[in-house]
């Protein structure tokens, strides 16, 4: 029994040493990547790089190459500039909404739309005032031929704002993943 524990002690020490070495290598690799990014950025970007690193940790993001990480950082920085400018404009205008970081902040608009929305519907026919059914064409009601109908808002005292959540008209946000439909 004593000889068995003497043999297992070096194995345990070796495993511990390998674990520490692996953690050190991973950490050094991450610092080297951050250093590679910082080497090509100005000092003004260093705080953005720190934000990007925190964002990556929060959303468990990683990239296959340094080049891809640099590209994603540039997209992230552009999106953050847009978010901050939009929030400043909204605040100045007295609006109550605010944009923020999400798991998609490293995607361009085109990438997001391609990944998370449905394809665009087919183009409408040239004459949008005519609806074709099995029974034949149906003209729009209330307009001159070739014109779309005009709808008038009869309410004269619209509220300054409406919280559709409070009135039960909408449900809480859900992550639909790659599904582009609007039905839950």
Automatic annotation (TrEMBL):
Transmembrane segments: none annotated. InterPro entries: Papain-like_cys_pep_sf (IPR038765), Prot_inhib_I29 (IPR013201). Gene3D superfamilies: 1.10.287.2250, Cysteine proteinases. It comes from the Eukaryota. Residues 1-27 form the signal peptide. Residues 52-112 form the Cathepsin propeptide inhibitor domain. This is Cathepsin propeptide inhibitor domain-containing protein. Keywords: Signal. It comes from Zea mays (Maize).
